Amino acid sequence: MAGLKYLSGFGNELSSEDPRCPGALPEGQNSPQVCPYGLYAEQLSGSAFTCPRPANRRSWFYRILPSVKHKPFTAVPCGNLTENWNEVEPDPNQLRWLPFTIPKSTEKKVDFVAGLHTVCGAGDAKSRNGIGIHMYTCNTSMVDRCFNNSDGDFLIVPQQGEILITTEFGKMMVEPNEICVIQQGMRFSVDVFGETRGYILEVYGAHFELPDLGPIGANGLANPRDFLCPVAWYEDRKVATGYTVINKYQGKLFACQQDFSPFNVVAWHGNYTPYKYNLKNFMVINCVAFDHADPSIFTVLTAKSTRPGVAIADFVIFPPRWGVADHTFRPPYYHRNCMSEFMGLIHGHYEAKEEGFLPGGASLHSMMTPHGPDAECFEKSSTAELKPERVAEGTMAFMFESSFSMAVTKWGLQTCQRLDKSYYQCWEPLRSHFNPNWKPSKP
Fold it and tell me: How far apart are CA 332 and CA 294, in angstroms?
């Protein structure tokens, strides 16, 4: 949407007020006896009060009515959104999905919440430790409905169609090749402009952070200045027919009614905000000598566990870059991993599997399940001339990597009917090149 403005910086202390109400932010304190313009002060806490300062997250709203003014919550159907990881038996196979189907608007109107489908996950929202991976497929905007997730953070990856997200902090337009994060407890509504699809990584119990850079230094990967937060925008709108607030709580959906728009925040300040990021701004670090570097060098955001160096989930991308390694098999190596790897494709062709892995589809290589380049990629790359070349030009693939052993839902394995049961066949043509008589080349 033309004209949207943003504040920049990751985790910064920010403040914003709608220009229609200058001076709406109280001066010198958070909760005055009477707020400017007769507003209510309300704090949104994203961490315990006593967290160390570097990890302490909260924001203050100055709003027309507080969020507590609503009718009681009641349970509503969850559709294909679930936290039941025991619906079907475990499946350790390599799994790949064809592009997930987007419902036609001529057949059925489906908004963002109704179009949420859980593919896989692990852990438990009640104990605040776990992960969920969802698809959203929708064709209509949310009208007089908003959503908030009491269980964790949503990292949203649009794949087809831009989405306009209205939050209590303001509006964000998020397009394919951008991501956004809506943190725990933040209310938002999604407008779409046609058939729309994307991926969601949900984490319980931790917030996303920028990865530590170590010997890389002070700069590189996703730079803090490139993260954008919305500016304050409010609507003072009564909804006589009722406004619905949908709350994801302990893996279930609940709804309540109120007679006004929740997007009534005139001003806010704090460091707990939604944000977006354009993946084209990622500063790629890559091998310039030999061997294939581990994909952790492509980490955009991480949600850390309590174990040092082990993530609940990492968001990793495979952006356009140069490949220059000498004496090296340049595509990803064959691998068995103590982590689970869920991959998606926003656009283009993924280098290790140019056929079958399509935009809007996905793959899951579970804990210790073997995976790697298909036979065609291996043969081609084993004999290729090793000259400098562009890799992944016009492509953006990504990975949700987790230390959890994820279970696939019934929808993911059966109901969606998008599982590619022929996936294993891409490795069937691999043949032995073993030569017991091989001798090293003479210098």
Answer: 9
Q: In whole angstroms, how far apart are CA 273 and each of 19, 21, 134, 252, 352? A: 19, 21, 22, 24, 37
The yes-or-no answer on residue 117 being catalytic is: no
- The dihedral sign for the CA sequence 43, 247, 190, 263: negative
From the list 266, 267, 264, the residue with the least C-alpha distance to 237 is 264
Q: Based on the residue annotation, tell me whether 341 is a catalytic residue of this protein.
A: yes
Q: Is 292 a catalytic residue?
A: yes
Which residue has 């952070």 as its token pair? Answer: 209
Selecting among 70, 134, 207, 371, the annotated active-site residue is 371
Q: List, for residues 245-261, the tens digit of each pLDDT value.
A: 999 999 999 999 999 99
- The active-site residue out of 207, 351, 365, 401 is 365
Tens-digit pLDDT profile for residues 155-197: 999 999 999 999 999 999 999 999 999 999 999 999 999 999 9
83, 178, 202, 341: the catalytic one is 341
235, 335, 355, 428: which is the annotated catalytic residue? 335
Q: Of the residues 195, 209, 292, 379, which is catalytic?
A: 292
Q: Does the annotation mark 327 as catalytic?
A: no
Q: Name the phi and psi angles at 222, rounded to 5.
A: -90, 115
Asked if residue 286 lies in contact with residue 297, where contact means CB atoms within 8 angstroms, the answer is yes
Distance CA 164, CA 172 (A): 6
How much of the chain exceeds pLDDT 70, in percent?
A: 99
Q: Report if pTM > 0.85.
A: yes
Catalytic-residue membership of 207? no
